């Protein structure tokens, strides 16, 4: 039996593999060193690579990401941690205006090979300012690659691709998945950015999900199977590049699309995907397209309330059932 | 300070300490979800400062804000009910430990993005000036917050506009698990920065409720007189780890020891004794606090969970959450 | 004939009307006082209302918007200016995490009646960091109302609604429209937020546009009319509240939808609108839905390049023609 | 400084001045679109500093960055072609005036969001340290940038990590149309803030190219020796308004007069005379500059516009812009 690893451990493993290969890879962030990160996703890095490659910073998100950019354009491959993805708002200028634009606006003179890693998402009762799924902020900005793995193996493989990428990558690690387990991938495992994965084949409806919503979609698919509805589940894995062709291919078979999104409905990635499908895949559709997404509210603290906001498998089942009957 | 006043402050501190202890226990019992950042050890700052403020002044705090909510009149029951996700919680279970707020007494919120509330306090002070009310705004924040951009912008704006706002840094030596000294260019992260804004900066023993009270009172008078903001850096120490998940093993035993010996409650008891208050009187106050908290725990436990429909209220001022027609 | 006013003048007029009505309205921002704003949209305010109500600030976007929030929750109605909408990134924490959430996370204890005004959009050769249409950043965040008027009268009327609103409103003034003219609206003119306007009636296709794209859509509609295609043009005016029902009503007649967006395709508001339509309006559609949006690149400097990126009327015409032939 | 070196710096300044004048004229002729922020009057800072740097050092500048691009080797033709939207422009007409960049000579960009590049310079210095190259990074910024959060975060991080980075503030007394003194809590917006980061801060006559050179040289040596960052505040004045649209009527005539009399080119000529260089020699240098710029204008005018397909290149390192499959 293959070795098993948690999603949490996969983060440190993925970074460590790249730090071993390439001395240009360095890490910076708050409490990432001795403490091994608030989510223990950088455990062991300081010990193995020393304080010259694993840097603890002050609480200065702009300086962290801005310095990562400066290092990236001068020959390093920095991996910056922003502790919670909500805090991307504190350095948003770098993500929105600097990092994704500098290559273009200098006519290709500089390259920005960096990764900004961040703990994303809700479901843990952390409240409105520590629970958001913020991938969609990044989706509004051309020039950022956006990765959001759902399994430990993908964490390792996509980190490898992200760190080796000459383009900036925002890497969303889902807090709700940190304790989940999966096989340890082989050495030099790479998952190319921009390739969605069909994680369950099915003929009746296509469920497209990301990160924490992949297990939710799979659970829904299992439930639907009991009712005789055969759902295909696609793990998008990246928002940019967005693997639209994989989705269209699936729709050729199923003719029905449901997106499963942790983020609020307004401005969610599912909307962009659906808009491409409603254009290029219009002829394939035999039923309305449905987006199962979070309510358009801040994340509440109490479980009883948070459960009302973030989609669960039964919400997905209900949505699909209605479509199947269309 | 007179003995009666100090005794009242002591009792408030005891109430906070016991509430924090209860929060910790409830957490271990699985009755508090999410995370909590306990302020045990830092009570004197909230209580001493609050006692120097007017009832209509504004307070802004951080995710480590239980003590500030309580110092501004939130009851242990309201706080614990919030932590336990009850409908009777301070924020009706929508905020949680990190966002305790009691707007009705001017406690305008606990904010969980480090440094974010400093500009808000500046704005509240500006508002007070515009309305001519003589109110003051106070922002409480950690040592770690002194290295974030919002700190700089807020202090400069407050100084330029000479606003009635106080910046009170609770320097507990650590951000989460990292010593503030390791990531800050000056020894006094807050006070040493005050000259950058041409305003007074002062260090005070944050565990001495009388000293905190005196300093805040002095700066508050100054600010109300129109002489502008000030920075107060209160030295203190947290008794628990950073948050619920943190055993705080990164702190040297000797350091912890030393600070536990410099406990704000003990210090206040000592001062009470000096003022001739017999130990039984202090103990009685502590006992009253214990009883209040015990009863608060019971009441919070008995309170109902929030109505699930509450998830879709309170986005807009009209009460709802509709984003489309 | 009614008095004519420019869009630029309408901004100052709209603010002045509210400042006259309500002493709680105060303005703050960089160079808004003596200088009358970099875009001259606050000309006259300092003179009429004095330095106690019109405050020049340092270059401190976080302090500007953070202070506006503090003032708003303590009884004022601040109108904060962020000079270019790109700079919202410098205070994004306030727009994403604080202002839209504080009411909810305190269980309704506080109310945040503020307006953040900002000069939005491209087409003027200001380059990658001064040209973005950033409404979509705000669309990803529940709890913000989003206004983007296209005419001087709407500027005045929507500013009135925004400033009187007890909810936070992000108010996008389009740089490309500042010099355009229109009738001066009557005293106490109010345009309720969340009501789209049908600015041209038509039977064959519905064009939905916002701000600078409204004249573009109208120009396209005029061109299409020559070809015998009768386009209805809807000016959305707000993204939140989003007037979906107005669009669905129109589609009941036209059965064809094209959005016209200045922003990049990825993450644009048209996607959210289309996703609602592809669900609730699926049965109405007789052709694919098409989004005419900007290319997914930063805004280039040269006119010759910028013209390739931002949609123009001919792009819209081409898109509609293809749909009409579907 | 020796006469030959100073003469070379004088010629560089003259080249910048003449290029700025040309940019202004071309703008009035409708040949430059968008906006420009001319650095005429501030040449000595770029030229003096650059002369003290190594060829492989890094420079980061603002939207007012023509002088820095040229001081690091960008030609007038490359700059003017960029301003005129030509394919031969420094950034192939994709950046424009506000984003002049010449990465091949370490001029790593002009950034148009105030303060944003300070952390980048810190990162470049960190990178130099990590790679052990002995390179230095310099961030040039305006007085107005000292009140934004990124300034604070960058200086603290640089100081804590003791990085080889210099922060050079070009204090031209104004942000856009507002006096920096009206919105800043200390008289020296940059130098007075240095103590907040435990680093040296110094004020220099930014119109005296020799003084700027001396100060930068001194701080550069210190930084390369491992002694960390420094702040240099260079006093200067812009000859034009903030940007093309600005007649700068908010500036008192007397102030403008005074500063025009304290022109960096005149100062350098005076120093050259003191060193025994005859006025004809200086004039000849200026003449050479005039000729170069005249020819640059002609060449830029004659250059082709960018290929429209360039709009969809250079987003990704592989050259394209595809965001989806
Ligand atoms: C902008 C931002 N960055 C990081 C965090 C994560 N974080 C929460 S508390 C904390 C440490 C804060 O330290 P300090 O300001 O000293 O306050 P203390 O916790 O000691 O009271 C950090 C880094 C945050 N909440 N906000
Ligand atoms: C974050 C941000 N806020 C506002 C602006 C608009 N703006 C451009 S230049 C400028 C003034 C900058 O003044 P200063 O730093 O003194 O530089 P100078 O223009 O005098 O060289 C302002 C406010 C901006 N570009 N970025
Ligand atoms: Mg601390
Ligand atoms: Mg200036």
Could you describe the 3D structure shown?
- The complex is a heterotetramer, with 2 copies of chain A (326 residues) and 2 copies of chain B (325 residues).
- Helix content of chain A is 36%, strand content 21%.
- Chain A contains 12 helices and 14 strands.
- In chain A, the strands form 3 sheets. A 7-stranded mixed sheet of chain A has the order 3-2-4-5-7-6-12, sandwiched between helices.
- The model of chain A has no long low-confidence stretch (mean pLDDT 97).
- With 325 residues, chain B is α/β, with parallel strands linked by helices.
- Chain B is 43% helix and 10% strand.
- Chain B has 10 helices and 6 strands; from the N terminus they run H-H-E-H-H-E-H-E-H-E-E-H-E-H-H-H.
- Chain B has helices at 3-28, 43-51, 66-71, 76-83, 117-131, 149-160, 209-227, 253-261, 264-274, 279-302, and strands at 58-62, 107-111, 137-142, 165-171, 201-205, 230-235.
- In chain B, strands 2-1-3-4-6-5 form a 6-stranded parallel sheet, with helices on both faces.
- In chain B, strand 5 (201-205), helix 7 (209-227) and strand 6 (230-235) form a beta-alpha-beta unit.
- At the A-C interface, helix 4, helix 6 and helix 10 of A face helix 4, helix 6 and helix 10 of C.
- The structure holds thiamine diphosphate (2 copies) and magnesium ion (2 copies).
- Residues 142-144, 172, 174-175 of chain B line the site of one magnesium ion (MG).
